[in-house]
Amino acid sequence: MAEDRAPITRVLIIGAGIAGIQAALDIANSGYEVVLVEKEPSIGGRMLQLSETFPTLDCAQCILTPRTVEAGHHERIRLMTFSEVIAITGEIGHFTATVQRKPASVNWDVCTGCGLCQEKCPTKVASPFDRAMGKRKAIYTLSPQAVPNKPVIDREACTWFTRGKCRLCEKVCPVHAIDYEQQATTTQVEVGAVIIATGYTLYGLENLGEYGYGKIPDVVDGLAFERLLSASGPTAGKVRRPSDGKEPKQVVFIQCAGSRAPETAMPYCSKICCMYTAKHAMLYKHRVHDGTAYVFYIDVRAAGKRYEEFYHRATEEDRVIYVRGKVARVFRDGDQVVVWGSDTLSGASVEVAADMVVLAPAMVPHPETQRLAEMLGIPANEYGFLLPLDDNILPVETTRPGVFLAGAVTSPKDIPETVAQASAAAAKVLSLFAQWSGVPQAMETPVGAEAS
Amino acid sequence: MKRIGVFICHCGINIAGTVDVKRVAEALKDYPGVVLATDYMYMCSDPGQSLIRQSIKEQNLEGVVVAACSPAMHEVTFRKASAQAGLNPYQTEIANIREQVSWVHQDDKEAATRKAIEHIKTIVEKVKYNESLIPLSLSLVKKALVIGGGIAGLQAAIDIATAGYPVVLVERSDRLGGHVGKLSGVYVNFNAARDLLESKLQAVQENPRIKVFLETEVEELGGYVGNFTAKLKHRGDNGGEPTFSEHTFGAVIVATGHSLRPLSKFGEYGGGRYPNVIDALTFERMLAPDGPTGGEIRRPSDGQVPRQVVFVQCAGSRDPEHHMPYCSKICCMYTAKQAALYRQRVPDGQAYVFYIDIRSQGRDYEEFVQSAMTEHDVLYVRGKVARLYEEDGKVIAWGADTLTGKPVEVQADLAVLATAVMPAEGAVELAQRLRIATDEHGFFSEAHPKLRPVESLTAGIFLAGTAQAPKDIPETVAQASAAAAKVLSLFSQRELVAEPTIAYVDEELCSGCGLCIPACPYQARAMHPWKHKAIVNEALCQGCGACVVACPNKACKLRNLTPSHVLAMMDAYLAEV
Amino acid sequence: MRIPYYPGCTLSTKAKGFDQAARQSFAALGIELAELKTWNCCGATFPLSRDNLLDLVGPVRNLVSAAAEGDKLAVACSTCFNVLKRSNLVMRNEEDKREKVNFFIEADYAGSVQVLHLLEILRDEVGWDNLAKAVKKNLADLSVAPYYGCMFLRPPKEMGFDDHENPQILENFIRALGAQVADYPHRAECCGNYIAAFDLETTKEMSYLILASARKAGADLIVTGCPLCQFNLDRWQQDLAMKHGGFRPIPVLYDTQLLGIALGLDATTFDLDKHYVDPRPILAEKGLI
Amino acid sequence: MRIQLSAAKVHNDFIRKVEEMSGQDLLKCYQCGECSAGCPAAFAMDLLPNQVIRLLQLGEHEAVLKSKTIWLCAACQQCYTRCPKGVDLSRIMEAVRDLLMLEQGDRIVIEKLPAETLAEFPQQAFISGFRKYTA
């Protein structure tokens, strides 16, 4: 630490999913400043894409929105969305991060978030937020509840940028916020500590040719199914299959799509799929009462408070059929999707002529996490998950003093574990900041003085 | 008349799927006092809250009713939004039309819509009588009590003390370290548990802000967040009378850990009668270099090295019929570790693991179990063991391989049971003393399973480790630090604010009968020393209303829920009948 | 003391020795086992299909007869005991079935009778200490393997008077008689039950597991309280000895037979000669007959 | 042969009848295998007890009807006693047997039993045997 300058009691948090938000709130609510960087236009991360959460079936929006709103309005949290950290130098107490903001093509300082531009924009593209289950406009926010609720223009889709025509949004904007000339900007932020909470993305299911993902429209991934189940999703919570919009009567859920397969995909277990698949099958049955749900699994991994009970609820109350055996092949037959699997318990090979297939893909770290790790000199394993100093007793600390990890960036984990880890990372930062800000007044009280 | 705005939330389809929100808005528009009634997709979202703020300013609203979900969910959100627009937050109320209306009347949309309208009207009546209140400010003792000296308690104490705050760490037994102190190596790297623990013990010892009391339990806990008073009971020397000490704390972390289901509960496995049927913690001691065998694997009956060892998983877990319905989470992993360690130490030995589902969820966990099978030649058999018995000096295991459909039998020298993780002894009694909740098994209840995993439902009391639910070391350590973060956040405040919606006494009506004092479950009521009138300790009062009911003179009232409020609300409801 | 007594079919025919030993032993202990004035077959197996109410008629008629004679019903045979006790619980706890069965047999019975096994009466009415005092013969040199079988203990939620995984009642009975208990693991495994009529080889192997294990534990004989168990265990030992080299046949007695012998009663009416593996040599060797 | 799973199959009438007659919920079973592990007749069975439930869960009752297992269950209650979910498998076996015999007639015919058997076996063996092996 540089001797001549006091260390900076401000933290940089990279990634504004539930991990980043939780850490930011814990630190900001303790009186310190937070810079929260998010590469998407708004915060909330994966959790905002979810419909309901296991094992309570609480609606994800309902429990997360208060946190995104609080983070968005917090006087000590500086949100930098649509931005990425492109460089970090310095050391504990004095990091300098260079944050690059992508051009939104909208002047957010004047935009009121009225939504008129999105309503009038004539160009529709598949929405990545909805996992292509629905469409969005070329000028868009991730969701109607976005924080901040300001749109950006997708320059690859917008006809002004691709073909030099339209500018309709500019015409309708009542406050003249549209700025087609906007450039990327870079900002330097000075912080004393860093938390990396860049989360996860999904394994490229196209690599698993046997499941037909990307070729058969009614083979979707679990996150896409979340969007179909979500009340604010593209089908307003109705289960409709992509090919023809019909309600699927037989749905097959395939677990371990890319997990536990050292030879063909990822060797590790992705931890959350067993539980969200049980939830998917359950919610599907709640929406489609005469439907049948099959879950193909290798081991049911329901380890967590009330998780085992949740799995039993899926089979007993919601009559989900569990089949122990990995699926070998999925192919199209007419308007059905045929699944070839086996039931290793009865020793039979089985076949389901399904209307829709939902794959539970392996969780993998974001590719850009690797770049961050290299910049900061933090080791990663061969799949790109960042390594804490000690798995058991230093789970959020890194080899680099002042840099901490939270959430799925270290390994697949579910929401409660992520939230606990985020608060744990916050604790480490708060400890540092408390030491740098001087001895708290409470320390004057000798411990145990009143013991009689 | 007060100018009141009504904001009706769709909550996606949660409300709007059952309640006709447009009709509700229409019906409220002309209700006396209501100057604005409108609806929105998600009122809690940023634009939803902006709508409320903007309307307060533009329409000069003096009261707000948000018809949405339970106030437990969003009362704070909407009161904060109102305050930002300059309205006293206590002029904003929630009409719960989700949990109390749409969710419970999904099959009758018409009735749900009518009920929602009536419901909102009653809350409008309440708001008409609401006073503007100012939150109470309370003092804050910046010192923490950590209960339990296992890895969770140690970690939490270290984090809080490192940030500069004093911590009292109490441990019931005569040593720190808890279960981790009894382990051999940890999965997945076989690092010595002793070494891992040692680093934490050293940090505790070296930190002058941590005071450790061994052989000490919490006898009583009174007070409230920021100002808890704890009576600690210290075991007397040489069996003498215990001594007591009293302390004040601002926050409490409960990290009392777990116990294991005793062997006597497993009749089908001998119920503890067979010396060579042991539980996994006993085997762990056998593996530990500081254990009774110095790390050598010797079976209890005759000290021989066991040539065949059977590991029985789910002994008492996943069994709602006879034992615990839940999964104990850690057994799959430590069993793989124990089987691998056994194979390392007894290279010509054979290990069998009987399992139902292998649950290896964590970084390198799956790979670890696979390596137990491939590198350490542990034979995994999918099927729960039905019986263990001893014959001819062997422990015979009856199992089945559900994958080949064959019954199997192993003539083993030793059987190791992965017994269910249970709450620590006395957990329920402790919960009662701390006034926090437990689940039906005795694990402490978190405030919210997803987003508030380390908070109890009582402000200022936090949870860490296996006291909340079975979990492994990394998760326990993270949770302990998380609990510490909550304490640090709390201690960073200058003072605490508390809800003003509590009881007060109308001195003119109070006869000094004192009936309110025993009625109060929070010890918040007392007599004024000389006025002969009852008084309210505002820091302790939770606004439950028990005293209001007990008072024969109607002298006890709750702020913003006075008889005038209640009668107006009743009138509004009954007007529709 | 007089307790209404249900002997059942097998005890009235092929297992008369079981019945005789029961009546005489209890008489010697001051308890009259008073045979029900009217009784019929219990059905020999508790009906497991939910809609199979007709199969409840038989056992319930016996219970109705018992109710006319007292508030208790003593049963010697474990199978009859199982059927009667479970049927009684149905009448006590399942209103719908109770009404229908009562309608069938024109009765008004609600499960008031307490169905007791003879061993329960020894344990709870006589007491092990009193039983020990009544013993006349010295059994100290006799090692006895208790065999429970299935019907006596299971399902525990309904039978529930002893720990189903680690039962003690037969052990305490043997100890009270002054004999040694041969501790062997398979005392509550199934002997093969009625499978014998369908697949004899399977039954033989199921029985062999029990017999060999008792032998290995040093037992001189096995005691049981079920005629079908007794038959299955007893009948095929010659075949088994041929098939499994080294297996020495072991006599299988009824619990009441051993009781009568210990009480010093004349065993001639106990039909000891009807057993396939003759128990008399070992009993004579130990000076008991 | 591949088993074709479908809603019609897994919820077929036979399965419904088995559940109704036995009073047991087949999907309560999570296939831990403890029933098979403790079954004293398992060594002689072509399908293990857990596989009987499994096949019924999949609507594959034909395989169950063909198996020896249902006739080898002695209703000894060992599986039910230990089942972590309280599934009474002996009731399921009984329901399957009853349904099969309603269709195909009795499994044993008293006239065909050897005279030696008739003379020797205790009465209760016949009575319970007929209860189990005849409709």
Detailed description of the structure:
The complex is a heterotetramer of chains A (452), B (577), C (289) and D (135). Chain A folds into three domains: 10-102 and 184-199 and 366-436, FAD/NAD(P)-binding domain (3-Layer(bba) Sandwich), CATH 3.50.50.60; 116-172, no CATH class; 203-362, FAD/NAD(P)-binding domain. Chain A is α/β, with parallel strands linked by helices. In chain A, α1 (18-28) links the parallel β1 and β2 (33-37). Chain A contains ten helices and 24 strands. In chain A, 59% of the residues are buried. Chain A is globular and about 75 Å long. Chain B folds into four domains: 4-135, Rossmann fold; 144-257 and 424-491, FAD/NAD(P)-binding domain (3-Layer(bba) Sandwich); 262-421, FAD/NAD(P)-binding domain (3-Layer(bba) Sandwich); 502-558, 2-Layer Sandwich (Alpha-Beta Plaits). Chain B has a five-stranded parallel beta sheet, covered by helices on one side. In chain B, strands 14-21-15-16-17 form a five-stranded parallel beta sheet. Chain B has a four-stranded parallel beta sheet with strand order 2-1-3-4, sandwiched between helices. Chain B is globular and about 90 Å long. Chain C is globular. In chain C, α2 (16-28) crosses α13 (255-262), α4 packs across α5 (95-105) and α7 (128-134) runs parallel beside α9. Chain C folds into two domains: 2-118, no CATH class; 136-285, Rossmann fold (3-Layer(aba) Sandwich), CATH 3.40.50.11810. Chain D is an all-alpha fold. The model of chain D has no long low-confidence stretch (mean pLDDT 91). Chains in contact: A-B, A-D, B-C, B-D, C-D. Chains B and D meet through β19 and β20 of B and α3 of D. β21 of chain A pairs parallel with β1 of chain D.
